[in-house]
Structures are given as C-alpha cells and as structure tokens.
C-alpha cells in the first residue's frame, strides 16, 4: 500500500511536560486526516517531545524565528537544490548531509523553519527537531530518537508498523538505558529502510528524497550525544549511499561539531558568506510601517516632520546591524516598545540610542538597565538565565519566595529581549535568543549584569525548599536541585554517583555527602 504524505501537528501538547492522558481522547492530526487509534497509541507510547518540531508554538517554545516573506531567497534556493538532487540523475556522488553554519543571530533557525515548511508541504519532511539550550529535554539527546520516530510514523504512515514491531520485539528500547545509536537504528533508520524496500513510499519518492531537519545542534548540552549522533549518521550513509534520505543540520561552529562534519560526506554552507543587507532593509521597512499604523505618536510625528525613520536612519541601522537578524529584530522591539513610567521615551527618542549601542551586548545592557533598580531584579534575571527548565511567572515567584506581581514588574520592561507570557500561570518565561544567556554568563561582556556560576547554589537552595514544601516532590525538582548543586560548587560526579542520582530517594543524602 502506498503511503499518504502527511505531517503531524503537536500543538495539543506544545510546551507540555509530564502529560497525564488518563481516559482522555487525544486527536493527533496528520495533514487533513486524523491518525488511527493504533498510530495514536504508538506515538503516545514513544513519548516524543511535542514542542521540538517546526509546528511548535514558537512564542512559548523558542527560537521564535521565521523568515520575513520575500527574504533569504538565494540561500533557500541553494538548500532546496541540494535536497532535491536525485541519485539517479546526479553525475557526481550525492551528499546526504548539509551542514549550514553561521554566527549567533544570523537567521539559521528561521531558514531551518522555512526548509521544514517547504518539505512538509510536499510530504517529504520525515521529521524536524529544534534544539534550544536550557529547555529541558529539548536541550538534550535523551528523547531525540523517539521524537524523530514519532514524527516519521505520522509523516510516513508506512513506517509505523515497523516502528511498532521494533518496540514490541524489545520493550526496553524506549527506556533511558538504551544507547542513542540503538534507538536511531531501530526506531528511525531501519523502519525507513523497511518501508523503502517494500515499495511503500514510492508515491512520495517520485517528488524527491525525504528530509530530516535538525536545527541548533550546538544548543544540545549533551556534547557526547551529539558526537555519537553525527558519527552514527555518517556511518549509516556510508553503508547506504543510495538511500533517498537527507539531513539538513544548522548550528553555530562548535569544535565537537566541526571536527565531525568537516567531512567529504557533508556539504558545508556558510550563512555568513551571504549578504543579508537587502533582506534586513525589507524587514525593517515593513516593521516600522506596521508600527506606524498602530502608534498615534509615530503617526503624529510623521505628519509634522515627514518620513520616519529617514533614509539616513535606515542606512545607519542596516550598517549597524551587520547582517544579524536577531539584532535587527531586537533593535526594532527596543525602539517601538511602549513607554513606561520608568522610561517615558518615544520611539523617536530611542532610535538614536539604538544606533549608539555596541551590537547585541549594548542592546542587552541598555534593556536590562530599564529594570535594574527594581526589587528582586538580579534574582529574577539570574534565575531565568540559569534554570534548567523554564517556568511560568508564578513558578518563578514561588521558587524565589516573592509575589508574581514583583516578577511581572521586572519583566515588563524587558519584553524586547525576554518573552513574557500573557498569563501568570500558563506559558513559560523564556529568553528571546540564546545569545542573551551567553551575554549574562560572560563577565567580560555583561559587566555588572553578570550572572556568576555560584548563583546555581542559590537556585539549589530555592529548589530544595520547593521540594520539601511540596507534598508530591516530583522527580524533576530533585534533578534540578542536584544539577544546580553540581554546577554551583564545581563538583565532579563519578559514574557510580551519577547512577545513584537517578534514584530520587538517594539524591539529597548523596549530594549533601558529595558537597561535604
């Protein structure tokens, strides 16, 4: 039976952790179809990360990056030309892996999203995974393989029976003790090959090879897991040089990634070599026009003084931004953010200030300064920067022993660089870009805004207090507590200690003894 190209939407669980299903009926929608109960059961059994794909709610599960319509055409065309290459028609050996790298804020995640959307639309996207640092499981490799497998089961239903058979043959395949290579082999690669050999995906293959998009690989905190994934992927394509499957990987240049992917079997794409000035100009012009349509202060200024920003302002902004889309976006938010009692300045006042800032660092410092005089500023910002998993406003307040309104008071001035959810209890407070965490944790860049590693110990105390004030004492709080103790004190934990830490009841005793 030929497969029907579909893609799985995980909005039902976007941002969710520890979902309790009970007797609820969950509709997992694939394309225009509802997945069968059997496939739903398989996907729920795999327990994927629901906010790791390109269909996630980007506001609550960063990165919140998307290409502005009409931009990055040349870059995207280069990637699609590679992804569409058919082995039969190619005169040269086909390269199955494309490593797309560039500096922080250059727009890699936006391009990854666009590529994922293009191939989801044609039914050729097998899976997509967007890593993000300090985002719980999404910043680790533990559930990477099962998440790819769950998406593949929905996108290519012909693979589902083979995934199910693998799980049935080895129920322990889904446990944490199983190696990443075994999970990738038995849950992703072998089911795809099995469906391919049986001719079950011929209909879609007529359009071209399938694609897996992996964004932000440098954001994965499990460096050894990243190396294992890359080595195993390279080995897979050596063994199967004709397989109609491609991997598009986007990341910054990190040594553990570079040494593996600078390989004859990998096509390298440097985003920094593509000028983005025209695209950034298009983005800024549309953004400022949109702001003017909704801001009476700007409208009145333009009525009296004429065009704003002027062409001179725009040229200086583009030169100042130097190809960084995250800087362009953050500067725009800084300029047009609403006036507050602490900062009553207008967008026209802020534009010259933005032009004087030293790139992202200057912008981060200027924005943080708006709230630095407020109570609990340092604890709130340090907590957001270092937490292993993001929390809602109420969660941060409870952890620090303060009122939710005090957290909101600090965050409202920081909305150019921090995502503030619309409600206190739902939605998590997240950084708009990973570069802000880098800024805050690098003393030479952040100065008096520096968040020292020792603050992990403060967080461990807060987590410890939260554990013993809670009746349920969930395991993730123990994990957060012990990780902050380790990072704050510089402890080195042996393999046997690490194994013992997996037993929740032993963690407090063991860690206190280690600290001593």
TrEMBL record:
Keyword vocabulary terms for this entry: Repeat
SUPFAM superfamilies: P-loop containing nucleoside triphosphate hydrolases (SSF52540)
Organism the protein comes from: Candolleomyces aberdarensis
Lineage top rank: taxon: Eukaryota
Protein name: Nephrocystin 3-like N-terminal domain-containing protein
Annotated ranges, domain Nephrocystin 3-like N-terminal: 94-252
Alphabetical list of PANTHER family matching this protein: AMELOGENIN, NACHT DOMAIN-CONTAINING PROTEIN
């Amino acid at each position: 039976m030929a497969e029907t190209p579909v893609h799985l939407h995980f909005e039902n669980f976007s941002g969710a952790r520890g979902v309790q299903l009970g007797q609820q009926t969950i509709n997992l929608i694939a394309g225009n179809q509802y997945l069968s109960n059997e496939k739903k059961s398989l996907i729920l059994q795999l327990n994927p990360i629901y906010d790791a794909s390109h269909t996630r709610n980007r506001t609550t599960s960063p990165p919140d990056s998307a290409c502005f319509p009409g931009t990055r055409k040349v870059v995207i065309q280069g990637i699609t030309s590679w992804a569409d290459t058919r082995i039969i028609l190619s005169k040269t050996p086909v390269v199955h892996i494309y490593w797309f790298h560039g500096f922080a804020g250059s727009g890699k995640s936006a391009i990854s999203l666009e590529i994922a959307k293009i191939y989801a639309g044609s039914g050729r996207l097998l899976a997509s995974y967007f890593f993000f640092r300090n985002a719980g499981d999404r910043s680790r490799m533990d559930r990477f393989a099962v998440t790819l497998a769950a998406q593949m089961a929905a996108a290519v239903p012909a693979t589902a029976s083979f995934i199910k058979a693998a799980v049935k043959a080895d129920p322990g395949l889904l446990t944490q003790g199983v190696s990443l290579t075994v999970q990738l082999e038995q849950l992703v690669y072998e089911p795809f090959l099995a469906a391919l050999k049986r001719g079950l995906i011929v209909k879609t293959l007529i359009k071209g090879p399938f694609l897996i998009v992996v964004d932000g690989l440098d954001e994965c905190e499990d460096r050894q897991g990243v190396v294992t994934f890359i080595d195993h992927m390279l080995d897979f394509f050596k063994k199967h040089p004709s397989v109609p499957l491609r991997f598009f990987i986007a990341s910054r240049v990190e040594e553990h990634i570079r040494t593996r992917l600078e390989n004859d079997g990998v096509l390298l794409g440097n985003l920094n070599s593509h000028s983005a000035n025209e695209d950034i100009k298009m983005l800024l012009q549309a953004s400022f026009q949109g702001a003017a349509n909704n801001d009476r202060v700007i409208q009145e200024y333009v009525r009296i003084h004429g065009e704003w920003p002027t062409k001179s302002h725009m040229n200086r902004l583009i030169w100042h931004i130097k190809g960084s889309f995250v800087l362009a976006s953050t500067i725009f938010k800084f300029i047009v953010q609403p006036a507050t009692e602490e900062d009553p300045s207008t967008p026209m006042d802020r534009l010259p200030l933005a032009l004087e800032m030293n790139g992202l660092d200057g912008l981060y410092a200027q924005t943080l300064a708006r709230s630095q005089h407020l109570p609990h500023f340092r604890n709130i910002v340090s907590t957001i920067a270092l937490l292993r998993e993001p929390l809602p406003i109420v969660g941060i307040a409870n952890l620090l022993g303060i009122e939710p309104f005090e957290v909101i008071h600090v965050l409202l001035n920081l909305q150019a660089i921090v995502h503030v959810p619309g409600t206190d209890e739902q939605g998590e407070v997240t950084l708009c870009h990973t570069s802000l965490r880098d800024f805050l944790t690098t003393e030479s860049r952040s100065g008096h805004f520096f968040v020292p590693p020792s603050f992990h110990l403060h967080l461990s105390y807060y987590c410890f207090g939260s554990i013993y004030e809670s009746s349920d004492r969930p395991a993730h709080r123990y994990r957060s507590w012990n990780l902050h103790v380790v990072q704050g004190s510089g402890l080195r934990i042996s393999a046997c200690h690490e194994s013992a830490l997996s037993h929740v009841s032993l963690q407090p005793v063991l860690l206190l003894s280690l600290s001593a």
